[in-house]
Hints:
Blueprint: H1 3-14, H2 18-32, H3 47-50, H4 60-72
Amino acid sequence: MSKALFEHVRDLAMTLKPEEQVALIGDLAAKLQGKFEPPKRGPHPSLLGSLKYLGPAPSAEDFEEARRDMAGRSPREEMQTSPPGEVEP
């Protein structure tokens, strides 16, 4: 189909009432249904597979050890315990 013919058919369709345009689209869709195949896609890698390069995840024991290590270096013991607004001598 030439571009000029396509544009002519489109212009004619635009002169129809909105209800007639909907009917035309429905008729065209019904005639075209099944004539086109959806694009074939290969399998997608899983999200976990895409993160494989990061290596194994830390274990629960690793998390617990890191938490204890961070808590052991906490300056909480060194902080002043006076109520807000008061200054210790």
